[in-house]
Amino acid sequence: RKGYAQMIFVDVNHLKPGMICAKDVILPSASVPLLAANHAITQENILRLKTLNFPGIYIETKLSADLVADDFIDPAVRNLIAADLKDIYTDFPTKYSVPSKLIKKMEMAASDLVDFILQKDQYILNVLEIKSFDTYTYSHSINVATLSTLIGLQLGYSLFSLKELALAGLMHDLGKLDIPLNIINKPSPLNSFEFDIMKMHPELGVKKLQNSMRISSTVLNGIASHHEKFDGTGYPLGTKGCNIPLCGRIIAVADVFDALTTSRVYRAAMTTKDTLDYMASCSGSHFDPYLVDAFFKTVSVYPIGVMVRLSDASIAVVIENISGHMLDPIIKILDSQNFDLGATIDLSQHENLFIVNTLDAGSELPDGIFD
After folding, report:
1. Given this model, what pLDDT does residue 61 score?
2. Rounded to whole angstroms, how far apart are CA atoms 313 and 356?
3. Rounded CA gap, 140 and 284, in Å?
4. pLDDT tens digit sequence for 307-321
5. Under a CB-based contact definition with an 8 Å cutoff, are residues 174 and 89 in contact?
6. C-alpha pair distances (Å), 7 with each of 1, 48, 72, 160
7. pLDDT confidence of 304, banded at 50, 70, 90?
8. Contact (Cβ atoms closer than 8 angstroms) between residue 3 and residue 38
9. Residue 331 confidence class, pLDDT cut points 50, 70, 90
10. Are 270 and 23 in contact (CB under 8 A)?
11. Which CA distances in Å does 60 have to 10, 32, 36, 129, 178?
């Protein structure tokens, strides 16, 4: 596929004019890409990406592997779901209950999302591939639905249950539309009064959905309980452990992961590795430990295209993730005293060779590799 080879993911803060975009950058509902593959980026492009909170983009290089970072969810599918979400979000604040035609739309969107995921060869998510949309409200809902579905797959959910889970993920934050905008958009931490108002959003969402005959109790319970914590310190009810509906426990994991790995006005995004480390530390307190383990089996710690430094000081690019070995991906050597340039290494087969940290492409390697 022309334009999808020799790519490395470059953090937006290290992009430079003249670098060649390796993969189309697409916005929701856009008829043309924001940036097209095989074209040199400009300073204006970089500023636009920063404004839209893009974490970075794939750039062509001389040294990276001939790797392909496929979209986990096809942009066309995401755009359709985002458009449906926009419809329901537009009507939601003005209606006592959500019209059945909009709920049917969301059911179809959830079904399409699950069907698309089930077509994948393996259920390992490259996180960078879901961090490409500027409309946080819509993209967050789609990401939570996607991540929740992946957890459901690890648990052996039936097709029907997966679609219920995806639907709950898509609609889990609808209640925030009844929260004042000055609280939703506040560029700093909420005070106790504001947080008490924010904590009402799960119940507000359920209130507008509960009269629909189309919404199951599983979906409603998932929406109502996605901010409960496994140790009972969550809200709105302080429910504890397995008394929290399973759907809500799953969405809680997906919700926190996507929120922490997304840049907001008041904080930078955490790396995938740091986020997973944090979630591991909260296993048993915030999260159901069993679900954390299931989640860790399906999210790539080191996404394809990310540069890493190895324990022997070699620099490499991640080219493939293997289920069951998320900390030990397959990498290709870019610079090393011990390995040939371009050597492919499966880290799961090297007990004494491991990843130390990820690198900021463009700041750690000579600029020449991007010519």
Report:
1. 79
2. 9
3. 24
4. 889 999 999 888 888
5. yes
6. 12, 21, 17, 38
7. confident
8. yes
9. very high
10. no
11. 10, 21, 12, 17, 44
3-state secondary structure of 308: strand
| Dihedral sign from CA coordinates of 297, 55, 49, 20 | negative
Of all residues in the chain, what percent carry a pLDDT higher than 70?
84
Q: Which helix (H) or strand (E) holds 305?
A: none
Tell me the three state secondary structure of residue 189.
Answer: coil
For residue 29, pLDDT beyond 70? no
- Say which residue, 3 or 125, is predicted with more confidence: 125
Whole-number average pLDDT of the chain: 84
Nearest CA-CA partner of 279 in 258, 310, 304, 262: 258
To which residue do tokens 């997966």 refer? 162
Cα distance between residue 32 and residue 157, in whole Å:
37
Burial of 11 (0-12, 13-18, 19+ CB in 10 A): middle
Pair 307, 285: CB distance under 8 Å: no
Q: Report helix, strand or coil for 87.
A: helix
Provide the 10 A C-beta neighbour count for residue 85.
25
Cα angle 127-315-326, degrees, rounded to a multiple of 5: 35
Which among 361, 302, 366 is positioned nearest to 329, based on CA atoms?
Answer: 302
- Picking from 214, 208, 149, 134, the residue whose alpha carbon sits closest to that of residue 173 is 208
For residues 291 and 151, is the Cβ–Cβ distance under 8 A?
A: yes
Is a pLDDT exceeding 60 seen at residue 67?
no
For the chain, the C-alpha Rg in angstroms (whole number) is 21
Structure tokens at 223: 């929406």
Beta bridge partners of 7: 60
Token readout for 62 is 């001389």
Supply the pTM of this predicted model. 0.82
C-alpha distance from residue 269 to each of 81, 120, 139, 258, 303 (Å): 24, 27, 15, 10, 15
* 307-310/56-60 β-pairing: unpaired
Instruction: State how far the Cα of 119 lies from the Cα of 140, in Å rounded to an integer.
Output: 22
- The answer to whether residues 113 and 153 touch, using CB atoms and an 8 Å cutoff, is no
**In the structure encoding, which two tokens stand for residue 87, read together?**
């419809």
Of 135 and 94, the structure prediction assigns the larger pLDDT to 94
